[in-house]
Amino acid sequence: MTDSYREALVEGRFDPLAVVAQLVGSGLLTDHVVYERGQRWHVAGNPLGEIRVDARRVRSTFGGDEPWAGTPWRRIQAALDRVPLAGWRAYGWACFELASQGAQGAHQTLAHLIIPRLEFQVAQDEILVRALDDDTIDAARKLLGEPAEPSRADAVPVPVRTGARPYRAGVAHAVAEIGRDRLQKVILSRTVPIPFAVDLCATYVLGRRHNTPARSFLLDLGGWQAAGFSPETVVEVDGSGTASTQPLAGTRALTGDPDTDEALRAELLSDPKEVFEHATSVKLAFEEMASVGRPGTTGVGEFLTVKPRGSVQHLASRVATTLADGHTAWDALGAVFPPVTASGIPKSAAYRLIEELEEEPRGLYSGTVLMADSDGSLDAALVLRAVYQRDGRAWLRAGAGVVGASRPAREYEETCEKLAGVAPYVVPTEN
């Protein structure tokens, strides 16, 4: 290793979301990723180097331009192994098409990771600054000495009850395909355009204050801008090799009225369609995790619990394993990405139907935003409940799991319930 991070700890009482907005708007950061887990916000930017993946090659500024086929994850890991920096962390994203490998992804950058020069870990009582030089540390400390004011931005709610007829027709077609035994399940999504440019940071702060995500993220990297409140993780791997994934499948609204929400919760737990959809998802997640785990170590915990996630509540389970010798966190990510809860069963058939029925590539939607550590740990969030901005467009997107017992009207309604976790909090950019 040729270098290591300098560190400084700033103690106090902080509003983490206000600090995140302060950092992102300060001018200290260029390309950046914000990633929240466990009430700690990681803010990383100013790339020292990067890794980009397209449909054919993994290219890294740390050396290496290598072809890949099947899966690129071990090539990505090899590129990270060449990072000449002790204690590095990597941040970035991967698109849905990295796994589906359909024609829609042929000309996209499918994944983009950075190693930051500057990184903050923001909590309520302290902020850890990591940088490669003392001048940057000093500039960061000076900024953090200034008050971080909470955002006063006003949202313009986005209407989400659009496109009902084509979406219901797509669900009906998928149900017919399932009836012909061509697949068991598919997640079909729809896009809702936003008719104005979005202030992603203000939207993130406002939306996060009204959501209960498993992870949240804000990014401006590689042409993508996005802010989201992920309901579930793709995979979580610690430095000792314990890996888990958290499939969520089965949905009812959260209204804010305790009696109504409890009735909907009871309905969710007893609905045969929802329980079947969830159980089949857990079964495939178990098989995928077992493929990289030591024999006998893969198990299911928290089976059929209910997790509140913003505007909806989901059936949830956790599948965990101990990685087998020779397997790493990147193998675990490759085994489950994209999760069954965002693709279908079997995945190959679901990919084909998604490409047939959805009007445009998914890109970041149902992909992942992630952070990885030089100690072998990795944490990857599923990109759902998000707002996206790219190439002069802004949009929302949501889907629903379709099985043989699905009804088109109900699946459309489920997309509206999910969109309600983001649509009311979209803040326009100031003219």
Report on this model:
It is a single chain. The strands form two sheets. This protein has a 21-stranded antiparallel β-sheet that branches. Strands 1-7 form a two-stranded parallel ribbon. The protein has helices at residues 16-24, 73-81, 97-100, 134-144, 164-179, 200-209, 258-270, 272-290, 329-336, 347-357, 408-419; strands at 3-4, 6-11, 32-37, 40-53, 57-60, 65-67, 85-86, 89-94, 111-122, 126-131, 185-193, 215-221, 224-230, 233-237, 242-245, 248-253, 299-309, 312-322, 344-345, 368-373, 378-382, 386-390, 393-402. The longest helix is centred in the middle third of the chain and has 19 residues, at 272-290. The protein is globular and about 65 Å long. It is of the alpha+beta class and 431 residues long. Helices cover 28% and strands 35% of the residues.
The rough form would be described as: globular
Q: List segments where confidence is low: pLDDT < 50 over at least 5 consecutive residues.
A: none
Query: Strand pairing plus helix content: what structural class?
Result: alpha+beta
Binned strand content: 25-35%
Main sheet makeup? 21 strands, antiparallel
Helix content: 25-40%
* Average pLDDT rating: 95
Report the end-to-end length measured between terminal Cα atoms. 47 Å
Supply Rg.
21 Å
Number of helices: 11
Please provide the count of β strands: 23
InterPro entries: ADC_synthase (IPR005801), Anth_synth_I-like (IPR019999), Chorismate_C (IPR015890), Salicylate_synthase (IPR019996)
Keywords: Lyase, Magnesium, Metal-binding
GO molecular function: isochorismate pyruvate lyase activity
Domain Chorismate-utilising enzyme C-terminal: 166-418
